[in-house]
Amino acid sequence: MNPFVLNEWYVAAWGTEVSSDPLARTICGDPIVFFRGESGSVTALADRCVHRCYPLSLGKVKGDVIECGYHGFTYDCSGTCVSVPGQTNIPRTARVKSYPVIEQGPWIWVWVGEPEKAASVEVPSHDWLQDNKWRWIGNLAHISCRSGLLVDNLMDLSHESYLHAGFIGTPEVAATPIESSVDHEAGIVRVDRHMQNVECPPFYSKSSGISGRIDRWQDIEYRPPCLYVLHSRVAPTGVIPNPDGSDPEAIHMKILYAVTPETENSTWDFYAVARDFSVEDDWVSEFLTEMQDTVVRQDVDALNVLEKVIESEGEKVRELSIRIDAGGLAARHMLKKMRER
Ligand code: FES
Ligand SMILES: [Fe+2]
Question: Which of 54, 75, 90 to mutate to test the pocket of ligand 1 (most atoms within 8 A of CB)?
Fold first, then answer.
């Protein structure tokens, strides 16, 4: 079975990471070089020169082409070699693979698989990062674990009560049962957890000023393989949304994770937190950045440990699943089907 789900869009970089300085990044086992040509558009090519396999990411971008840093083979944005040293005749096979790329909002998405299939599939929607009503912060973490472990982690938020106690976790998260479902048509796994009359963790109380008991909703939508969105709603206890869907007394956050496999045993974790309150307040962004970076670091440390355990114990690894794992198991099942197709 293929270790990766192919023929899908994956977040490969923040737009701010890609410039005329080539960026080397491995996605689903493929070494890829990303660069921004003089036209401003982003190109993604196999990061291996056809001549002697030198990484193109160690070369130079000149205008809209990239020149290999070893002997100067030069490639245009389609991956075609347009110049070689010492001769005018360019071998017909001198080309590197080019990857379809879309820059949308703050993210650069790359299509891994058969390039001709990319045009028929849209990048999953992540509007909150592209809408002035929302303000967001974001970052990138590298995890030395298989991507499935990050998906497990995100699908089961009961871990917040233990791994993130004092940050986003309170005892009620683990104590509240979940409802999970799979929307096969949309290809989405959902896990909802609605907590009533609970303690407000510092992540929300300090950033929003809400004090006292709250109702806290955590509604997960995972669209395998890459995009995970946690719809978070916090309101003073008893407040419910209006029939028209407006919800002025509550605060809302969208916590996005783009889960991109680097190799079979390592993962890029692009995360963002968008909010619909205090959008003018820089200190809230700073506070949420510090909190979210800390929370992600706690997950990364745990997942790095877990990967080592799984690798060293191999076949001997046994698991025991309970009700809270329903969403995670549904996601695993969907990812397996996608790898097999
Ligand atoms: S390895 Fe790239 S030009 Fe020789
Ligand atoms: Fe976590």
Answer: 54
Residue 54 CB less than 6 A away from ligand 1: yes
Ligand nearest to the CA of 75: 1
pTM recorded for the entire structure: 0.96
Tell how far the Cα of 12 is from the centroid of ligand 1, in angstroms.
25
Contacts of 91 (CB under 8 A, 6+ apart): 81, 84
Query: How far is residue 233 from each of residues 65, 160, 213, 242, measured CA to CA in Å?
Result: 47, 16, 13, 14
Quote the CA–CA distance of 166 and 175 in Å, as a whole number. Answer: 16
Q: Is the pLDDT assigned to residue 35 strictly greater than 90?
A: yes
**pLDDT (average), residues 249-276:** 97
- Ligand 1 lined by 223 (C-beta under 6 Å): no
State the pLDDT at residue 209.
87
Q: Which two tokens stand for residue 275?
A: 């909010």
3-state secondary structure of 266: strand
Q: What confidence tens digit (pLDDT) does each residue in 61-78 have?
A: 999 999 999 999 999 999
Give the SS3 label for residue 89: coil
- What is the Cα–Cα distance from 60 to 69, expressed in whole angstroms? 7
pLDDT one-digit tens code per residue, 195-213: 999 999 888 998 988 888 9
Instruction: Output the residue whose Cα is nearest ligand 1's atom 4.
Output: 71
* Token pair belonging to 265: 């045993």
Atom of ligand 1 at shortest distance to CA of 84?
Answer: 3
CB of 142 sitting under 6 A from ligand 1: no
Q: Is the CB of 52 under 6 A from ligand 1?
A: yes
Structure tokens at 1: 């079975």
Set out the domains of the chain in order of their start, with CATH numbers.
8-120 (2.102.10.10), 127-340 (3.90.380.10)
